[in-house]
UniProtKB/TrEMBL annotation, chain A:
Family statement drawn from the similarity comment of this UniProt entry: Belongs to the binding-protein-dependent transport system permease family. LivHM subfamily.
Keywords for the protein's UniProt record, in alphabetical order: Amino-acid transport, Cell membrane, Membrane, Transmembrane, Transmembrane helix, Transport
GO biological process: amino acid transport
Biological classification of the source: Bacteria, Pseudomonadati, Pseudomonadota, Alphaproteobacteria, Rhodobacterales
Record protein name field: Branched-chain amino acid ABC transporter permease
GO cellular component terms given for this protein: plasma membrane
Stretches that traverse the bilayer: 6-33, 40-60, 66-86, 145-164, 193-215, 227-252, 258-282
Coiled coil: none
GO molecular function, a single term: transmembrane transporter activity
Entry membrane topology: Multi-pass membrane protein
Subcellular location: Cell membrane
Pfam family, one: BPD_transp_2
Organism the protein comes from: Mesobaculum littorinae
Automatic annotation (TrEMBL), chain B:
Keywords: Amino-acid transport, ATP-binding, Nucleotide-binding, Transport
Cited Pfam families: ABC_tran
Domain spans labelled ABC transporter: 4-233
GO MF, any single term: ATP binding
Protein name listed in UniProt: ABC transporter ATP-binding protein
Family under the similarity heading: Belongs to the ABC transporter superfamily.
Coiled coil (UniProt feature): none
GO BP annotations, alphabetical order: L-amino acid transport
């Protein structure tokens, strides 16, 4: 058997999965890193992004590319606004207490999920890809849209990186992440930073949801798996470490693609779980995290 | 001239009251040293003025403006900067980024940063270095330079020379003297008697969360018993 085509296919599928995972997990990691909030509702922002893409596709006539382009901008913005409101209405009121935020984001999860069920219905709904060109290789054809997912994800991660490293907002976020009290000594309104970070984290997940929906349909329960995989990525990469999150998303996405193609998706899920267990035992701070002093 | 007034300040950690009506007055161009044994409430007083520990009573005014109860982020914007105990630099950020955070606070321009770097020239060669990789002395200088970049009218310093080599101590003291000459009001928490006697104008002695005595530096020099009584130290 010639392995090359299978290997190429596995790597391509792994890259697509890693790209979406990278966006979703980065949102979760950013929120935890800056706010110390474990956002159990994060997967619902992913789901809302996908639902938003379906709504845009329905509402905007013409070629699918137009509705999709609008969705790629409007859905993350709308989801970011929902997250911003949730931060102010819920998390800020409980003072970002670690235990309280876990319980309250579980509540938020059910509110968002059930709202989607009521408004969107229980059925999975398809969204046409913005374009359906197929790239030919010597062995198989491959959807160019899937490569578009990879490109957009890389562009968004690069933009996030630039914002964090090169802008005033990024500097403020990093200072707040490092030491909330000292940040206040320099006039930083920590509550506003938290609202912004919670919104940006949700927008990243929503962008992942928009990108993925032409491949796997929108459904009100679709937020669970991305949440669990994002937790896997964030634990393996190191809580709050953005480089670690990116590296772990690529590692898990690629291994998932390879194992799914060569063996079975079940084995891929088992491997991810095993990896988390090994990391927790031998390097609990994650591959890129820092050990507690 | 700048005047900061603290009247009847009270603060708690949980159910334990740690400040019992602290009152202080500080003018521009004056260095008021706050001395007392460990646990007397010196650091708590500074944190309460900065609003990072919300006072439960009392009043803080700066040039007549009531700052009591303002959000913590508003206090530095009003013109009060703080060098906390242990420096608390953003050690993952570069020296330049730490200074930039100071400049952002009140929108100060880069001339303020230049003035701060003139006080601590060693930092000029370290601008791209991560703050956490600096030596202890350099970190103290950066903590002070960062606070100076706020462009403060009042500067609160919490043991800025703790654990430093003598050469670094001298640099920090010279910077305090320069700030005083520039009209900045300095509230200095300090354990080193020689530093207090060199840079202080007045000394307020704290005990059990209260100001027990407030003397001009000449009286403290003339009566070593004061230091012995309130701090347990001899000159």
């Amino acid at each position: 058997m010639d392995l090359a085509p299978y290997l190429l296919l596995a790597l391509l599928e792994g890259m697509v999965q890693a790209s979406v995972l990278m966006l979703t997990a980065l949102g979760l990691s950013l929120v935890f890193g800056v706010m110390r909030v474990v956002n159990v509702a994060h997967g619902q922002f992913f789901m809302l992004g996908a639902v938003g893409a379906w709504l845009c596709a329905q509402a905007i006539p013409g070629p699918p590319a137009i509705g999709f382009a609008v969705a790629l901008i409007a859905a993350p913005l709308a989801v970011g606004a929902i997250a911003w409101a949730a931060d102010r209405a819920i998390l800020r009121r409980i003072g970002y207490d670690p235990e309280g935020t876990i319980v309250s984001t579980i509540g938020l999860l059910y509110i968002l999920q059930q709202s989607a069920l009521i408004g969107f219905g229980p059925d999975a709904r398809a969204v046409d890809p913005p374009f359906s060109h197929t790239l030919r290789t010597p062995w198989f054809g491959y959807s160019s849209y899937k490569l578009f997912i990879v490109a957009v994800a890389i562009a968004l991660v690069a933009a996030l990186w630039l914002i964090l490293r090169r802008t005033r907002l990024g500097l403020i976020m990093r200072a707040t992440q490092f030491d909330r009290e000292t940040a206040q000594n320099f006039g930083i309104r920590v509550d506003r930073v938290y609202s912004a970070v919670f919104a940006v984290g949700a927008m990243l997940a929503a962008a992942g949801g928009v990108l993925v929906v032409p491949n796997q349909q929108a459904h009100y329960l679709m937020g669970t798996d991305p949440l669990l995989l994002s937790f896997v990525v964030v634990i393996v990469g190191g809580l709050g470490s953005l480089p670690g999150t990116i590296a772990a998303a690529v590692l898990i996405g690629l291994s998932d693609g390879l194992l799914s193609v060569f063996f079975s998706p079940t084995l891929a899920a088992i491997a991810s779980t095993l990896l988390v267990a090994l990391v927790l035992i031998f390097r609990p701070q994650g591959l890129f995290g820092r050990a507690a002093a | 001239m700048t005047r900061m007034q603290v009247e009847g300040l009270e603060a708690r950690y949980g159910r334990a009251q740690v400040l019992h009506g602290v009152s202080l007055s500080l003018r521009g161009g004056e260095v008021l040293c706050l001395m007392g044994r460990n646990g007397a409430g010196k650091t708590t007083t500074l944190r309460s003025v900065m609003g990072t520990l919300r006072p439960t009573g009392g009043r803080i005014t700066l040039d007549g403006r009531d700052l009591t109860g303002l959000p913590a982020a508003e206090i530095p914007r009003a013109g009060i900067a703080h060098v906390p105990q242990g420096r608390r630099l953003f050690s993952d950020l570069t020296v330049r980024e730490n200074l930039a955070l100071g400049l952002m606070t009140r929108g100060a321009d880069t001339a303020v940063q230049e003035a701060a770097l003139d006080l601590f020239p060693v930092l000029r060669d370290r601008l791209s270095q991560r703050a956490g990789t600096l030596s202890g002395g350099e970190q103290s200088m950066l903590a002070m330079a960062r606070a100076i970049c706020v462009g403060p009218r009042v500067l609160l310093l919490d043991e800025p020379t703790e654990g430093l080599m003598p050469s670094a101590v001298a640099t920090v003291r010279a910077a305090i003297a320069r700030l005083r000459a520039d009209g900045v009001a300095v509230l200095l928490v300090e354990q080193r008697v020689e530093a207090v006697l060199e840079v202080g104008d007045r000394v307020a002695f704290m005990e059990h969360g209260r100001i027990r005595a407030d003397h001009p530096i000449a009286e403290v020099r003339a009566d070593p018993g004061l230091l012995k009584r309130y701090v347990g130290l001899s000159v």
